[in-house]
Records
---
Amino acid sequence: MINCLKADEACHMTSDDVLHLMRSDIQHGLSHNDAAVRQRIHGLNDFEINEDEPLWKKYLSQFKDPLIMLLLGSAIVSLFMRQFDDAISITVAIIIVVTVAFVQEYRSEKSLEALTKLVPPKCHCLRNGKYETFLARELVPGDIVSLSTGDRVPADIRIFEAFDLAIDESSFTGETEPARKLTESLRGEKAFNVTDMQNIAFMGTLVRCGNGKGVVIGTGDNSEFGEIFRIMKAEEPPKTPLQKSMSLLGKQLSAYSFIVIGLIMVTGWIQGRKLLKMFNIGVSLAVAAIPEGLPIVVTVTLAIGVMRMAKKKAIVKKLPIVETLGCVNVICSDKTGTLTKNEMTVTRIVSSDGDEAEATGLGYSGTGQVVCRGETVNPENHPSLVKIVEIGVICNNAQIVDGELHGQPTEGAILAAAVKMDMYSIRNQYIRLQEWPFNSDTKMMTVKAAVRGNEDAQTYFVKGAVERILQHCTKFNERGVLRPLTNQQYNLFVSQAKNMGRSGLRVLATAYGSSMSDLAFVGLIGMIDPPREGVKEAITILQETGVEIKMLTGDSEETAVSIANRLGLKSRRTLSGEEVDSLSFEALTASLIESTVLYRVSPRHKHVIIKALQSTGQIVGMTGDGVNDAVALKSADIGIAMGRSGTDVSKEAADVILVDDNLRTMEAAMEEGKAIFHNIRNFVRFQLSTSIAALTLITISTFANLPNPLNAMQILWINIIMDGPPAQSLGVEPVDDDTIKQPPRKATESIITRPLMTNVLLSATIIVSGTLWVFWREMADNKITPRDTTMTFTCFVLFDMFNALSCRSQKKSILQLGFTTNRTFLLAVGGSLLGQLLVVYFPPLQRTFQTEALYITDFIFLITLTSSVFIVSEVKKWFERVYSVKRDRFERIPSDYV
Ligand code: ATP
């Protein structure tokens, strides 16, 4: 059997010994069969959180709630006083209340758990002689893994190959500087520190630069930090501001309710009512009036919202982000890949001696032609054009295999052009001696290479942004002769590049030479990258709702502006990365207000841009995909990473991951964010009005020295409706057009606003008046009978159902919303009504709730009466709509006319 190796042992062994011990093969890796066997022994490379408590224990812990204990106490007292009916009724009611609370809490826990599984880490692993990408949880000890910049280390790995490899271990060591990694075994005494073990890459750390390979020595629980991971995973996620404010609201309401309930009980006692009855009513009222379910309903609604967003391809990593989504008023978006497809195709090649070729055919299959003045380009007829592509191919890390691109699209596009010119294999004629990879700061890539067989003649091949390349050029190519680069020529090349940019092309310049300070400029390559479908529409929607979009790109001004125009992004001015560097913070903040297009920007500028925008009170969403974007993603209010093209580092730092890299997905997520907040408001309104109505009803009847209109069990039943399915179903109301069109919410805005409270009080007043009236009517005979309370109770419940219906929207009428658009709501209300019918007609429940069968005419009467709460709310909404349309019109009239 293969055992896992401890990191402090493996670091002292040679990599060959480790490979031998793990029975692994550096060339072929493990076979799939072997991996499957090892997985059976070692399990998945994951941390399963054991269900710490069995379900029955969790269920029983619900009874620990002091209020429930009080109720249980009163059931026991009833038992001793031989009031068996009361004892049974209270017990049944308690069981129902506790079960509903338990199911709610369980659901919320499960949905939170599901969130953590939304972004499973991946790995690149050698199996059966081929590198494959699969889920990191499938890794087993002995697997050969390749690591490159931006990756998350998928298991504990003994490194046997490292090029410039540096790993960020700050999550374990606190050390912010990335640790350099080597392959040699450690000598001397035993290494104790993570920092000492330079040949080990630890699970969960992040590759900051370079690349390397290694063999897995420990997975899952057997990894060095398995224990820490388990603790981290088991830890409860921090509460969102909304959850916190809901808990606070719950506590405040509890305090008020307790005071009122105390007063009710004391008054009842002074009036000489039965103490036990008053106690039961008091405690039930406490259970009912205190919206203890509020924070749970909020959590479930947020979690369900997150799952809904995941279905739309936006992964929100933390619950609090959902709240911020509706507040974002600026989104800074990368251009390539997010606004455009990142599917590059070379369409124009312009040589330094004035030849211009057009390329046809899309994609990387190589179908199409490169044509200059009607003839297909070849080395004989257009050597300068051929030289441009030759440099592009040599200074290139991509590959096209069976029409499929492996590597960057920019480089792939050049290779595809080379295939069309039958030049793909020209790379094989050279030996690469050194490479200076492309990065977004230098905006160029250099390769030093020599022709095979003539290794002494070394040449630099360079491609990159025009102005950067020209900085290194002293000459230019004219029909095979290298001439000095005059200012006039320099300006000509720059203006050619600008012209290409203006037509939306991404432009790369190429040059070569024997020294980097003495290059010869050869020409320009222009490639198209079409805008993504749906992005223009998404931008229009976002702009209409008051969200500003800023395009950030490493590309040139002309290209950026051209694409921006195509996407409907109007800019009063543009801002370059250089300007961002040179402007003072105040000047930058002022310029940013007017600028929509920021060009030649690199990741390091993003952080300053965010800070400047945030200083004016904006809530900023920022996209990013590279390792260097991590800081910006963290400092933005919402960091947005790219699921497909993004590095693990950026995904780790981000709050939202767009699975399809598309800005449109972000727009959909923001809509959901707004809808969730809106829905939370709706059920808060529902819960508050029910709670206030129940309290007021009992308070008034007690002070008016009337008998109790509802008994304890009935109050508890109302609590189930209030905290249970109908409230929850208001949380899943589908996204409504009007909500989406609302401008971003102020981050400081509270859930409980003045209009919301007006609605709550209005509904509560109608419910209380109507219910009291029914009670008074039934009491005409001056005797309190089960029929009287059944009528009052049913009246309250029906009022509540109609109230729930009007709570579905703050502004829209039910006709505009559509009666059947929220199926969950229909089911919840239908279920509650069915429950009410059972309570009224089903003998065992009649006994529990002390009810009596009602006539159909009673129901007709009650439905007519209770619909008033709905009708009043609809009329109010109608007035508000008409008034707001008029106000809008009024506001649009120019001030001269007013
Ligand atoms: P963003 O993704 O932020 O919208 P971008 O992808 O357009 O920006 P960069 O990738 O930073 O921007 O590219 C900036 C410029 O660098 C390009 O206009 C191009 O001239 C040059 N460039 C891009 N990729 C390469 C490459 N692989 N090799 C050499 N030069 C490149």
Note: The first strand starts at residue 122 and ends at 127.
---
Amino acid sequence: METQEKKIILSGIQPTGTFTLGNYIGAVRNWNKLQEEFNCIYMIADMHAITVRQDPAKLRQNTVQAYALLLACGIDPEKSIAFIQSHNKCHAEINWVLSCSTQFGELSRMTQFKAKSEKHPDDINAGLFTYPVLMAGDILLYQSDLVPVGVDQKQHLELARNVAQRFNQRYGELFKVPEPYIPEVGAKVMSLQDPTAKMSKSDDNPNGCIYILDDKDTIIRKFKKAVTDSEAVVRYAEGKDGINNLMTIYSVVTGKSFEDIEKEFDGKGYGDFKLAVGEAVADHLEPVRSEFDRLMNDKAYLKECYTKGAEMAGRIAQKTVSKAYRKVGFVDFR
Ligand code: ATP
Ligand code: LTN
């Protein structure tokens, strides 16, 4: 009988702070579910993180913390490859080759570059500009079929597809052209303080953001303060960004449909609804928090896991780098 190869999934998250509920709902939660069906590769994107200025000691600490969070969210290092990007030098190597197949014009159109340069006007570095090439390399090195991300990363994925196709046309087939894998509900969780803006790890207003390690009281307090509207009816509708966002969050953590939620809160005020969302989120995240504490007390185990992950990732990626080097005409010396 013919056995079909499992598809390859790759995704990454930057160690720029504690994961938010947005990261969890839009990305990491789904990574967990994909582990049974696919060959999954997940990485902590520390090389991406330095496109914005970081304190070195803090970055080192955040990277180990992010790795522990990944495992606490259910990524099983026995089932998936979980590693830290800078531990695999192939990411830097493929980056140069792919840069030479990427156009200045296409990078100039990236909305994340525009947004981040506005946010950090004193440090618009070349890495921030070429960030999507690094990301294309992450994906193409592993011949990934699917890339589970939140909707904010769609444009970067399209660029990765274009770069892969351009390289393949120029030098002959090498890279698999990846597909995005974006959740239907929760693809973009919004800030609780400004429901027209994405909930982001590096948000300056901590009340807008639920961190997955926040304690129950903090979570409930932040939801109580969430910006809504003056209609006082829990229903999903255009113009009700704040309530739509809370309904999305509640739906994901409880599994209830929007219709069920509207029925559940029929005749009740926003106060009741916000409290219910806060409690449901806090209960949902509680096991993540306790597993994280346990893992952070076992640094030797974490190190063992990311070392093994880097070795496995390195072996796969090296094959792609060698092929790419040969294709572009570099002389083989081994
Ligand atoms: P930063 O604020 O440092 O740019 P971030 O919070 O946007 O970070 P990333 O590390 O860039 O997080 O993203 C990790 C994953 O989480 C990506 O797949 C991204 O699409 C997803 N993600 C980030 N924010 C949200 C959000 N608010 N809603 C849904 N998905 C999100
Ligand atoms: N740029 C991504 C994080 C990331 C990523 C990747 C996601 C780095 N490399 C590869 C998917 C595939 C972000 O979320 N900002």
Note: Strands lie at 8-13, 39-44, 81-84, 146-148, 179-181.
